[in-house]
Every structure is written in C-alpha cells, then in structure tokens.
Amino acid sequence: MTHSFTISLDYENYLAANWLMVRRRMWWRGLARTFATLFVVYAFVMFAVGAILDGVTLDTLFYGLGTGLVFATLMMIVLPLCWLWKLPRSARKTWPQLHLDGLPTLHEFDETGIRIANDRGSSNFDWHMLASWAENDDLLLMFRTKLMFHAVPKAQVAPETLQALRARLIDAGVSTRC
C-alpha cells in the first residue's frame, strides 16, 4: 500500500532538525570522545614536559593527569557553548541556499522505498539507501548520510501516516542508531 503526504519546511523546522541531528549524532558521544582524547593527549604532553624538566616522578605523573583532567573538563564547557553559537549561524547561512522555504514537498512511500519530490526535482530511495532515522516530539529525520537528512515536521502529517512511515523504516531495518 502506498502512503503519501506533503510538507512545507520552514527555517524553524530546519533549525530544529539541525539541533536534533547534533544531539543524536554528536552531543554525548562526541563530547565523550573529545574528553577522552583531550585528556590523554594533554596529560601525556604535560607529563612529558614535567618529566623533561623535573625527571619522572609520581608528582610529575599526577601533574600530567591533573592538568589533562582540568583541560578536558574546561573543553566540555567550551565546546557546547561553541555549538550554541555556531549552529544557528550555520543554519541561517545554509537555509537560503536550499531554496525550500514554503516549497511543498511530496513524500510517497511503500514497501520498496520512498519518493521525495517538489518543483526543484525528485529523489527515489530504496529503504536500504537510508543510513538511519531519528525522531523527537516535533520532527522525524531520515538520514541519507551522517550529515544529510530529510526532515518531516510531524505537525504536518497525519498520525496514521507517520505510524505507517515508522513501520516501513523499522520493517526495512533502517537503523535508529545515528
């Protein structure tokens, strides 16, 4: 059975989709990886500097570990602040280039895949061509790659159609792990 719906994406939906993407893909995992990397690298560098200046001692080891921990912790504060500043500016610059403001976009899907079309063009994707999908209370995102997605504002789609879309994504084995 084929289902279809039409949406019209606006800047607020686009910005919310970008925030959802960052939270799902980069927020905790990205911060944890960054913390671990910065801690190890900075602790090693500070230990090496201390060892060159004062020799290898237990104090030098604790100095390297302590400064690595402090530096990595400070970065866990600075990086989210950078994202809070950068993401809206980046989205605001990208949005006009997409030429989607108010453009009706038709989505048709069945057991084989999804077709997304508007006046600018159309794309056909078999379900296996979608890398993953994610959703929150307001949006459903279908990712083609780690950074490229198709956003579906839930308020513009009938609940039974959304449920059918979710069922197709799940049946096709599209990952929810972003």
Structure report:
- This protein has helices at 11-54, 58-98, 159-171; strands at residues 3-8, 104-109, 113-118, 121-126, 132-135, 139-143, 149-153.
- The chain is an alpha+beta fold and 178 residues long.
- The strands form two sheets. It has a four-stranded antiparallel beta sheet with strand order 1-2-3-4, covered by helices on one side.
- The relative contact order is 0.17.
Which descriptors would you attach to this protein?
single chain; alpha+beta; PH-domain like; 2 domains; four-stranded antiparallel sheet; 7 strands; 55% helix; elongated
Provide a compact summary of the structure:
This protein is an alpha+beta fold and 178 residues long. It contains three helices and seven strands.
Kindly report the average pLDDT value: 92
Question: How many domains make up the coordinates?
Answer: 2
Percent strand equals 15-25%
Q: What's the helix-strand series? A: EHHEEEEEEH
Label the overall shape: elongated
Which class best fits the helix and strand makeup? alpha+beta
Number of strands: 7
The strands making up the biggest β-sheet line up spatially as 1-2-3-4
Report the sheet with the most strands, covering strand number, pairing sense and barrel closure: 4 strands, antiparallel
The residue fraction in helices comes out at 55-70%
